[in-house]
Design goal:
mainly alpha; 73% helix; 21 helices; globular
């Protein structure tokens, strides 16, 4: 594949964007450093719409930003069912999950697990999240860097180091409030960049959008009825939808980077509004991101040709660098890194929250948020951010050097095995009375083992998610029954007493 020169004007645009995100962290430094309440929860002062934008930007990685148009380019819009699944679970979150997180005023999602089951489950959930997201930082830096540098003369080591370093710095300084407002900016850049590519691409095609629409219908680029046969893309829509529901349940109920945002608004109503904002953004980006791929399909059918043997994973950056004017192209490349940075910064802040709150504060004999110990904890959180960021960035540089990610994929697979099953643990805790710590540990282990072996087959990842969730839920519940003793106070922790106040036990 022929490389394209990045150019001085594009570098100027990209550096201006990266420095802009840095300034956001600088702006919130003083406020974030007050105590852990400010650093991890922004003292509940962030507007709901901003939190909704942040949730959206966090869940949308650069891999998705480039992969969604690629999927529409190569096949059709079938995978948009995953976006619909986000909207489908919002009522479930509002009525059955948010009340518990807000009632307990948790900093991490895993505090609920301790109140419901005990400290061991809390530590398992927190450590699984931490390990997985350190690895995820590396992948989120590596994959977009690989795609962009495959079609340009950018030095991959330089760009990966820049993205990792700047994420560390502004997350270190601004805390969760800096992360959220950076996410807002990045979310706007993401959507604006995608819309710009759609129009810039369509206006170079003879007939503009009329030609795009005609070819999309003619070549079955929306939903191909031919694909409704067994094994076709469209036939998998129900599986994609159901699997995405359980993947999203994991993200929105058991993953710290999202759950942490629920406490950054001033009320339950504001948290609910933030989820609807996120749902709206997930919906409107269906025509934007899939439309981008469809426009590029028509563009390369009519106006230009892709190089022979072209890897379509680099489709979006290749179009930007070859068809968009300098400086504007740099801003659009910045949109790809905006997607990466929003995910990375969220992971780094959430990793620090897990280590400080679930480990240091939980097991410290003398920790008072009203004294200097809380400021020391902010310092510890910032140190953790640097350590996790350095490790993730170095791992991404290693992947670039080795030109393979098989080892790292294995790491993510092993650490991620507990992801969706932990969502099953949250569900069995909320929706049943008799589940207990012994049972859910058994369910979690069985689900992780089963997911590993099922994942090695040809079955889709969406199906693995569904199976992993239900194994953790069903086995966790059934295995709890022989050990059931009503000795732990769970009033206010299940749907049966959802409106009751929970009185925290002394630890």
């Amino acid at each position: 594949m022929n490389e394209v020169g990045f150019g001085t004007a594009n570098w100027v645009a990209l550096i201006l964007y990266l420095l802009g995100t840095l300034l956001v962290g600088v702006y919130f430094t003083k406020r974030a450093g007050q105590d852990t309440e400010a650093f991890f929860k922004a003292k509940g002062k962030v507007p709901s719409w901003a939190v909704g934008f942040s949730i959206y930007a966090t869940t949308l990685s650069a891999i998705t930003y480039m992969g969604t148009p690629e999927r529409a380019f190569n096949t059709d819009w079938s995978y948009a069912a995953g976006n619909i699944a986000i909207i489908a679970i919002i009522p479930l979150l509002i009525y059955f999950y948010i009340p518990f997180f807000r009632k307990l005023d948790v900093t991490t999602a895993y505090e609920y697990l301790e109140e419901r089951f005990g400290v061991i489950i809390r530590v398992i959930g927190s450590l699984a999240f931490t390990l997985f997201h350190v690895g995820r930082v590396a992948i989120v830096i590596y994959l977009p860097t690989l795609a962009i540098t495959a079609v340009s003369d950018i030095n991959p080591y330089l760009i990966a180091s820049l993205v990792g370093l700047l994420c560390m710095i502004y997350t270190f300084m601004g805390g969760i409030e800096g992360v959220i407002w950076s996410d807002v900016i990045q979310g706007i850049i993401l959507i604006g960049g995608a819309v710009a590519i759609i129009f810039l691409g369509a206006f170079q095609i003879d007939g503009n959008f009329a030609t795009v629409a005609q070819e999309a219908v003619q070549d079955k680029k929306f939903i191909s009825m031919d694909n409704w046969k067994l094994g076709g893309a469209a036939a998998a829509i129900p599986i994609i939808f159901i699997g995405s529901i359980f993947n999203n349940l994991h993200q929105y109920t058991a993953s710290q980077d999202i759950v942490q945002r629920y406490q950054t608004t001033g009320s339950v109503a504001s948290t609910n509004q933030s989820l609807w904002t996120n749902g709206l953004l997930a919906f409107i980006t269906i025509p934007i991101f899939y439309g981008m791929g469809t426009v590029l399909y028509s563009f390369y059918n009519n106006t230009a040709a892709l190089p022979e043997g072209f890897n379509t994973s680099a489709l979006v950056p290749y179009f930007i660098l070859t068809q968009i004017p300098p400086f504007v192209g740099g801003l659009l490349i910045a949109a790809i890194f905006a997607a990466a940075q929003s995910t990375i910064s969220s992971s780094l802040n959430s990793i620090s929250a897990c280590v400080v709150v679930d480990l240091k504060q939980r097991f410290s004999k003398n920790n008072d948020s009203k004294n200097n110990d809380s400021k020391n904890d902010v310092l510890l959180a910032r140190i953790i951010i640097i350590i996790a960021g350095v490790f993730g960035t170095l791992a991404s540089l290693y992947l670039i050097n080795q030109e393979t990610n098989e080892t790292w994929d294995l790491f993510l697979l092993v650490t991620g095995l507990f992801g969706v099953p932990i969502a099953g643990v949250f569900a069995v805790g909320i929706f049943t009375k008799k589940a207990n710590s012994i049972g859910v540990i058994i369910g979690l282990i069985v689900a992780a083992i089963a997911s590993y072996f099922i994942g090695k087959t040809d079955i889709t990842p969406f199906t693995v998610s569904v199976i992993g969730f239900f194994i953790a839920f069903i086995v966790g519940y059934l295995a709890s029954l022989p050990f059931y003793k009503q000795t732990k106070n769970i009033k206010g922790l299940t749907i049966y007493t959802i409106n009751d106040q929970y009185v925290k036990e002394t630890k």
